């Protein structure tokens, strides 16, 4: 497979990528999860690293299949999804930031893809990233205490054990900070 830069992003994507509007069957004919996963896996096996989907493709089943497969793979795969086609009536006034934000959040939940996937690359052996997040916060000397919630005793134990973890390495701190700057800061930093 050959790769080219995607516009001005600097991201190298496969010359032939994968569109998923009919990946699990014909439009409107029901969705075949096994077929969808086979097609997506074979595409990645063949070097495809860019997959396009949308929230309306078979009522979100395509997005979910893409997310399942991408999360199961070790390769870096870029996913583009589209939203807004469900706005009714389908007019410009319906495309408000609030409405679009909700569609994007729904797509992230449906695919299960978000900045966490990048954290998994930094900490591949971790079952849960919650203790890592707590450890990262504790690594800031300005923090007096953190107050995580717990709905199970296991959560409480995990939270407490986070303080026993060794501080993050310099490399891990840089990677986590990059993810924070890229994905999280713009959504929360202005709130404090």
TrEMBL record:
It holds the Pfam family Aldo_ket_red. Gene3D superfamilies: NADP-dependent oxidoreductase domain. Residues 15-117, 126-179 form the NADP-dependent oxidoreductase domain. It comes from the Bacteria. This is NADP-dependent oxidoreductase domain-containing protein. It comes from Flagellimonas chongwuensis.
């Amino acid at each position: 497979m050959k790769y080219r830069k995607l516009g001005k992003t600097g991201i190298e994507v496969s010359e032939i990528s994968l569109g998923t509007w009919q990946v699990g069957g014909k439009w409107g004919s029901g969705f075949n999860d096994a077929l969808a996963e086979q097609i997506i896996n074979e595409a990645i096996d063949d070097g495809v690293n860019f997959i396009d989907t949308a929230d309306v493709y078979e009522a979100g089943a395509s997005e979910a299949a893409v997310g399942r497969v991408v999360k199961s793979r070790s390769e870096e795969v870029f996913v583009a999804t589209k939203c807004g086609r469900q706005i009714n009536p389908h007019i410009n006034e319906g495309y408000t930031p609030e409405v679009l934000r909700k569609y994007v959040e729904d797509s992230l939940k449906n695919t299960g893809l978000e900045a966490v996937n990048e954290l998994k690359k930094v900490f591949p052996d971790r079952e849960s990233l919650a203790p890592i997040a707590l450890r990262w916060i504790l690594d800031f000397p300005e923090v007096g205490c953190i107050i995580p919630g717990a709905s199970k005793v296991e959560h409480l134990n995990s939270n407490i054990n986070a303080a026993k973890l060794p501080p993050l390495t310099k490399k891990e701190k840089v990677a986590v900070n990059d993810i924070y700057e890229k994905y999280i800061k713009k959504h929360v930093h202005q709130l404090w």
